[in-house]
Amino acid sequence: MSGGGEGGGGGDRFTHFDEAGRAAMVDVSAKAETARVAVARCRVVMAPATLARIQEGQVGKGDVLGVARLAGIMAAKRTSDLIPLCHPLALTKVAVDLSPAPPDAVEIEATVGLTGRTGVEMEALTAVTVAALTVYDMCKALDRGMRIEAVRLARKSGGKSGTYEAE
């Protein structure tokens, strides 16, 4: 989805609209296959006591960070089922890392890669978001005031648009 190409069939347009203005998945068949990597990040901010319980393995639903890591990986693989017009991709790498950031947060980073015709930014963003939602779900009985913040693309490489690095 993140790449360009023809939208429904006319010229080298970078759009998700066809000639009649209807939504259409971008045609990337003419694009060259390149190695593409995207990294996304976010934070789940919580009460310090909630973070302590996560770190001590004292959350009733189990290993919060382990389950959230798996949820993020699974979500990256299913991005095209969640985001309209997103291409189904054969990902070759998905890594989701969750790190306690005392006193009150868990930082999440996803790295997604493939060799293909379209980028993997949406897959990386989906991975961190679903991992964050999983942390929330597993800990909501302890802390309903948790916040998911700063969901963003940190960097990407490959494809016609080249490299992007967030400030």
Characterization of the model:
Strands 4-5-3-6-7 form a five-stranded antiparallel beta sheet. It has a two-stranded antiparallel ribbon with strand order 1-2. It starts with 5 loop residues before the first strand and ends with a strand. The protein is α+β, with helices and mostly antiparallel strands. Mean pLDDT is 89; it is low at 1-12. Helices cover 28% and strands 30% of the residues. It has helices at residues 48-56, 64-77, 79-82, 121-139, and strands at residues 6-7, 26-27, 34-45, 93-101, 105-116, 147-157, 164-165. The chain contains four helices and seven strands, in the order βββαααββαββ. It is elongated. β6 and β7 form a beta hairpin.
Helix content: 25-40%
Label the overall shape. elongated
Instruction: Please describe the biggest sheet, giving its number of strands, its sense, and whether it closes into a barrel.
Output: 5 strands, antiparallel
- Please work out how many helical segments DSSP would assign: 4
**Series of H and E elements:** EEEHHHEEHEE
Q: Could you name the ranges where pLDDT drops below 50 across 5 or more consecutive residues?
A: 1-12
> How much of the sequence is in beta strands?
25-35%
- The end-to-end distance, rounded to whole angstroms, is 23 Å
Q: Mean pLDDT score, rounded?
A: 89
Question: Order of strands side by side in the largest beta sheet?
Answer: 4-5-3-6-7
Q: Radius of gyration, rounded?
A: 18 Å
Enzyme class: lyase
Subunit structure: Homohexamer; trimer of dimers.
Domain Molybdopterin cofactor biosynthesis C (MoaC): 25-159
Protein name: Cyclic pyranopterin monophosphate synthase
